[in-house]
Write a structure and sequence with these properties.
The structure is a single chain. By secondary structure, this protein is of the alpha/beta class. Helices cover about 25% and strands about 20% of the residues. The chain has ten helices and 20 strands. The strands form six sheets. The chain has a nine-stranded mixed β-sheet with strand order 2-3-1-4-11-12-17-18-15, with helices on both faces. Helix 1 (about 65-75) packs parallel to helix 5 and helix 2 packs parallel to helix 3.
């Protein structure tokens, strides 16, 4: 009872020990960043997320830049929420990249997606930056080699800074992280963001905890990941989203090289570009295909569920592809390198062809598996917030487990996950932990992988001749042949 003081009569109190329902958040939400220099600045301010719910909401965006055409490509597939971020175009590609990358502390550039929910908008789940991702700079920090390993370092207490080389006034954006062995020696330095614009190799400075000393390293400049893609990886991780990025659309080999620089289950590479009819020039014009892929995935989410991949489905609003890809060996060459493409199988129309992330871990190679796990993990985490600060009791612990089990069983019935899911209180719960308010649960589920390789073995059946003779004999006996 909430109130134990004296009262003469009856009173009703609602128990706080109540079950919680777990609900999946909306997944068919596109996060789009790009340029629109002629846009209405009041309606579409720079570096502020703006939500479009229908095509007419794009009025005032202007035809120039990358945003208007991308919005059109998405709405060609489905009318779904688009969280749009407009950035200022630069006088150079590198300057435009810098505007799109933005500042994490100011929530500008791609980081503006992170403020969408606090601004009362949907959370973006399908991120894209068409026109800003197709080239990979040749002047980023490609690698850092450890010269002297040093002693006394720890990963948590060690920082790596990169200062521009002598006379370099343009290089920017590179960051790195040290990997430290059990003996306190630095075993490797990983480039976390390659940056761009370096004319000379930056100077590497390694700072460790008190007592650490001796480590040295040398940076090398070369071909690196597109900086906007690199920034999108971290934003997608925070939002539990996937970023759809465009490859170079020059050759299969160039696409494979582009993809080879990326290792993330949050990145989905699209190549080649599509052709769209431009009413201003009355010509077919190459346009990024990432809005087509993202829009079609949103349509799949809305119509069939987030556990369905937007592949082997028609692409609407296009007249062709800028670089034809033949179904079979050419498409396989791209797909095996985790590049998603567009094919036309036996003149049946253009269809999206690919389900692949850029993950090196094969468990996360399928975009539908990544997104299903995200949707479930996020739903459980959000629902269990209702249990925070409730007192330990049999009822509350029981509701914790039962809410998770009921949610997972519902997903099983829908086909979103495979049978065998479970939710339970971990055996590692100790009296000491629980006395500090800590309770540990485990959940187990398996998203269904897409069937990407259906193998059929065909056999000859010469016994059919015996069946044929038997049928002839039966018809002769019945007089059917004579008739």
């Amino acid at each position: 009872m909430a109130d134990l003081t004296f009262h003469h009569g009856s009173r009703v109190f609602e128990s706080e020990e109540t079950p919680v329902l777990v609900r999946i958040a909306k997944t068919a939400v596109v996060g789009l960043i790009g340029t629109a220099p002629d846009a209405d600045e009041t309606k579409f301010p720079l570096n502020r997320p703006v939500q479009l719910l229908r095509p007419s909401d794009a009025s005032g965006l202007g035809a120039a830049g990358t945003l208007k055409d991308a919005v059109d490509s998405i709405f060609d597939q489905i009318v779904c929420p688009i969280v749009l971020v407009r950035v200022e175009p630069g006088t150079t590609t590198a300057e435009t990249w810098a505007h799109a990358i933005g500042d994490a502390t100011a929530y500008s550039g791609v980081h503006a997606f992170r403020r969408a929910v606090s601004d009362g908008l949907y959370k973006p789940k399908l991120l894209l930056a068409p026109g800003l991702t197709q080239s990979a700079p040749a002047d980023g920090v490609a690698s850092i080699a450890v010269g002297v390993a040093g002693t006394g370092y720890t990963e948590a207490g060690t920082t790596v800074s990169l200062a521009r080389g002598t006379g370099d006034t343009t290089g920017t954006g590179a960051t790195a992280q040290a990997i430290v062995g059990d003996n306190g020696a630095i075993t490797a330095i990983v480039v976390t963001k390659p940056g761009y614009g370096y004319t000379t190799a930056p100077t590497v400075t390694i700072t460790g905890p008190s007592g650490a000393s001796g480590a040295t390293a040398t940076a090398a400049v070369g071909s690196t990941m597109n900086p906007v893609v690199a920034e999108l990886i971290g934003v997608a991780e925070k939002l539990k989203a996937v970023a759809y990025v465009d490859g170079p659309d020059t050759s299969d080999q160039a696409a494979v090289q582009y993809r080879g620089l990326i290792n993330s289950d949050r990145i989905f590479v699209c190549d080649p570009k599509v052709l769209k009819f431009d009413t201003a020039t009355a010509l077919n014009v190459p346009k990024p295909s990432s809005p087509i892929f993202a829009g079609r995935q949103a349509k799949m989410d809305a119509e069939r569920g987030f556990w369905w991949a937007g592949s082997n489905v028609p692409a609407a609003g296009i007249t062709g592809v800028n670089r034809p890809v033949e179904y079979g060996e050419q498409a396989d060459y791209l797909n095996v390198s985790r590049i998603n493409t567009i094919v036309n199988i036996e003149n049946s129309g253009f269809r999206l062809w690919g389900v692949w992330t850029c993950a090196s871990d094969l468990l996360w190679q399928f975009v539908s598996v990544r997104r299903t796990a995200d949707a479930i993990n996020e739903a459980v985490e959000k629902a269990y917030l209702d249990f925070v600060d409730r007192p330990f009791s049999k009822a509350n612990l029981k509701f914790l487990v039962e809410a998770g089990r009921a949610f997972l069983k519902t997903l099983e019935r829908e086909g979103a996950i495979l049978p065998g899911s479970e939710c339970w209180l971990l055996d590692t719960n100790s009296n000491e932990d629980m006395a500090q308010g800590i309770v540990k649960l485990g959940i187990r589920f398996e998203p269904p992988a897409p069937m990407v390789d259906i193998r059929i073995t065909a056999y000859r059946n010469i016994a059919a001749y015996t069946l044929l003779l038997d049928q002839v004999a039966q018809e002769i006996d019945a007089g059917a042949l004579a008739a």
